[in-house]
Amino acid sequence: MDKLKLMKTAxxxxxxxxxxxxxxxxxxxxxxxxxxxxxxxxxxxxxxxDPKDPKKADRDRFVLSKGxxxxxxxxALAEKGFFPKEDLITLRHTGSYLxxxxxxxxxxxxxxxxxxxxxGVSAAVGMAIAAKISGDDYRVYTLLGDGEIQEGQxxxxxxxxxxxxxxxxxVIVDNNxxxxxxxxxxxxxxxxxxxxxxxxxFHVINIDGNDFDQIDxxxxxxxxxxxxxxxxxxxxxxxxxxxxxxxxxGWHGKAPNDEEFKIAMADxxxxxxxxxxx
Amino acid sequence: MSEVKKIATRESYGExxxxxxxxxEEIVVLDADLAAATKxxxxxxxxxxxFINCGIAESNMIGVAAGxxxxxxxxxxxxxxxxAAGRAYxxxxxxVGYPHLNVKIGATHAGISVGEDGAxxxxxxxxxLMRTIPGMVVINPSDDIEARAAVRAAYEYVGPVYMRFxxxxxxxxxxxxxxxxxxxxxxxxxxxxxxxxxxxxxxVNNCLQAAEKLAAEGIDAKVINIHTIKPLDExxxxxxxxxxxxxxxxxxxxxxxxxxxxxxxxxxxxxPTKVLKIGINDVYGESGPALExxxxxxxxxxxxxxxxxxxxx
Lengths: 278, 313
Hints:
Chain A has helices spanning 3-24, 29-34, 36-46, 70-80, 120-134, 152-163, 184-188, 193-199, 212-224, 258-277, and strands at residues 61-64, 140-145, 169-175, 178-179, 182-183, 203-208, 230-235. By secondary structure, chain A is α/β, with parallel strands linked by helices. Chain B is α/β, with parallel strands linked by helices. Chain B has helices at 9-23, 35-38, 41-46, 58-70, 81-87, 89-97, 126-131, 144-156, 204-216, 234-244, 259-270, 290-296, 301-312, and strands spanning 6-7, 27-31, 51-53, 74-80, 104-108, 137-139, 161-164, 170-171, 187-190, 195-199, 221-225, 228-230, 246-254, 274-280. Chain B has a seven-stranded mixed sheet with strand order 3-2-4-5-7-6-12, sandwiched between helices. A five-stranded mixed sheet of chain B has the order 9-11-10-13-14, with helices on both faces. In chain B, strand 13 (246-254), helix 11 (259-270) and strand 14 form a beta-alpha-beta unit. Chain B is globular, with a radius of gyration of 19 Å. The two termini of chain B are 31 Å apart. At the A-B interface, helix 5 and helix 6 of A face helix 4 and helix 6 of B. Chain B: This is 1-deoxy-D-xylulose-5-phosphate synthase.
């Protein structure tokens, strides 16, 4: 792992998020930014995928169960070369293939349409079972929000995943502690998240999800686990990287105006320059 | 009167899955703790490694089926119509329909012929729900022979399919050498010039019997079997309406949103025709033996006969 390179890439992904959401005048920057380091690690370090052959049979699969953070996924896919970065500004525009939530029919690199919370994780379980039936050795990854795990379907899927001993499945929970209506602890607390997944017989890893050293260690550990699925509970900062968005529930699903966009991009430019000094 | 062979279409479904399983390795069957009732247990016994019992979790089952399809499998996901189309409606809509994944939903125990279990398990709304989903094929076979053909046609078709099967053993009515199942094509079972009865599923047989009674009274009824509700055989329906001037629809389903509504959509836009919709009249079912409920809710031979006679006169 080249940590500095990943940090620089993540900063570019964050610029893509802010740029696309600003252009769309709508979208979900908060949870896209919190997971930007996870998206970056997945596409630049972990997943066996090929932007030139997005549907190659033996690719690892990624399902963005928290589909509203599509801007984060799209920015990472564009950075990786699945489609032109210039297209990011068409996000949510009428006629654009970059739909508000991931659409597998028209977006290169998207393995599953998602957005209705709680459903992506079931599809990921289905993909992992398919691999087991066929004897394929690709792995399946899915990213959930911490608010999303309030959906009962998540636990239906978790129960089946451990019943089938899906050690080719890695569930990641982006634990940024905020959902639309506020702090998850005030809306309907899902804590303790780790104990819940333990009770569902998952191997559980708790990390700081904005720290590449910890992300790297967790993903490596997950790969070594046999006979059961793994969940990484990634503690993150919602809005990470944009000063006025950090830890603000209000930025869950709101686009920056022109002035806020300038400040956000200035924050990210500054962060990028600081990384170049390293 | 000679004994008519009776088979429940859920049996036809389960047995055909086993046949298809032998022919196609990519077929995977899912159930939600109703394998004995939906008859997917037959597939489980034959191919346990390709059978996934999701337990009592239908929403997840549909999502898992979507993932299997996205990974190249051809999943047949089964439960009662109430849970497959009802509880898991949004999963079918968003995880299967929207990405147009190759998932087949085998919904058994549809309609009031569920019988004694009563209203909570008698789904009279599934056709309405499923036909509103863009790209979804909706099939409701009338007997064993049609159900077997439907399952094979569903496999051959690439894309989401909803198949509706019954719990009750029903007479075999399509046992003839020239029987052919074509997705989206209605079947004229009886010619007639006074009225067209368009039926789907379980009541098709009763419509044929009712037509015989009507004939004895000098009313010549044409009978069409619509096994595929979506895509609908509009051409056949329009032509029949033009020929007979009056149309009756019959279904073991709510009169809201099912075959009757689909037929009215087509006719109102093409050949405005007086239509009588026979079905479940915006009420819940109740407990009772299936055959008694079919009579009570107006889907028996006499019920259909009386209503058509009054409508035509």
